[in-house]
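As a next step, the fold was encoded as tokens, giving this record:
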Amino acid sequence: MAAIRKDFPNEVEIVESIFVPLPDGTRLAAKLWRPRDIGPVPVILEYLPYRKREGTRGRDQKMHAWLAGHGYACIRLDIRGTGDSQGLIDDEYTEQEIRDGCDAIAWIAAQDWCDGQVAMYGISWGGFNGLQIAARQPPALKTIITVGSTDDRYAT
């Protein structure tokens, strides 16, 4: 794997494990990249079931570090019941998943390192749940970037 660039306009701080508390007491696990010594800044959220410590971690380390080095905080958040997050997952794109995403956005927006503006980025599952969450219009969600977010759950 190629080395991760570290010569950005801003030094990058990586917080390997943070937990986002939900109203029902469940905690969702996340990894945070943010520019050191500046802030508050906008936050880009990636909300996935693919475990923040595995799967596409190599891709994320490069992309999220680059974004943080250029003035954005980034969070990769494990969906309820996946990775290090508490709870159970029983299907994809559930009402609970979307509600959790909206609650997570509100929590992120209230942190002292966030300027109150949250964006979502996602490919496939993360893109599709981004569309569903955006339809709920959480106040802090300002934009989404969705890639390959199509699904036909009824195809055989």
Remarks:
- The longest strand covers residues 12-21.
- The chain has one domain: 12-147.
- The mean pLDDT is 89.
- Helices lie at 57-69, 95-109, 125-136.
